[in-house]
Amino acid sequence: MHVLLLGGHGKVALHLTPLLLNRGWSVTSVVRNPAHEVEILALGQGRKGTVKVLLSNLEDVKSPSDAQVIVDTVGPDYVVWSAGAGGVGGPERTIAIDQEAAKHFMTASFAAPGISKFLMVSYLGSRRNQPSWMPDDQWAGIMKTNFEIIPTYAKAKKEADEYMTALAALQKRAPGPTRPFQAINLRPGVLLDQPATRKVELGITPLGRGSVTREDVAIVADLLLSRADTEGWIDLVNGEEDVEEAVERVAREKVDAVAGEDIEGMIKRFFP
């Protein structure tokens, strides 16, 4: 398999790259800064797969056709979005990358006949409605974060997530035979830099402000991509369940944290 990894120098992506390479897959890592190329290429040393670096500024992706150029150049089987403005450059840059560029890559990827998986690394609090499994105090924490602490980022992620959900729903409803496609929205809590614990709470969680190591996020992303039966919104914080068992359970039980959100409303808003 060939993976297009957008945001290849992000901390989650740097953990994810060697995991994908260990499967014998190839990775094309998209980064903006040429100074990061050597570090990323070094991740391929001694691995089964090969890694390449594509220099591109995602802020310059202004349309689906711009994204299509990169998709066509790379020719991936899977696409992983692990990019973001990271709070640098003001609200306009956050909207340009976390929202608009993400949507453009989804449009291009969902339409590409050779792509069968799109994994978005999102954010646990990216939702409109309080889920039935989350206590009021935890939901209040999400609301405070979304509207007072990181309002632009939260808005951008919610827009991108809902667009992805609408695209995935429409694809399943398309007339005629549908090709297999996994739209995976991985939604970690507060990100930590500590080493992986390999113990998680996955699928849904009452912990609106729970935390998880970036390395564990990468491990879960790798495991989700390795299967043909994972899709939907998958919340993630560190917990007590073994990570492999958690992924197996979520896939088997078809857990989807989109429950309680208005998917029909998403479709009508983006595709009236």
Automatic annotation (TrEMBL):
<dbReference type="InterPro" id="IPR016040">
    <property type="entry name" value="NAD(P)-bd_dom"/>
</dbReference>
<protein>
    <recommendedName>
        <fullName>NAD(P)-binding domain-containing protein</fullName>
    </recommendedName>
</protein>
<dbReference type="InterPro" id="IPR036291">
    <property type="entry name" value="NAD(P)-bd_dom_sf"/>
</dbReference>
<comment type="similarity">
    <text>Belongs to the avfA family.</text>
</comment>
<feature type="domain" description="NAD(P)-binding">
    <location>
        <begin position="7"/>
        <end position="220"/>
    </location>
</feature>
<dbReference type="Pfam" id="PF13460">
    <property type="entry name" value="NAD_binding_10"/>
</dbReference>
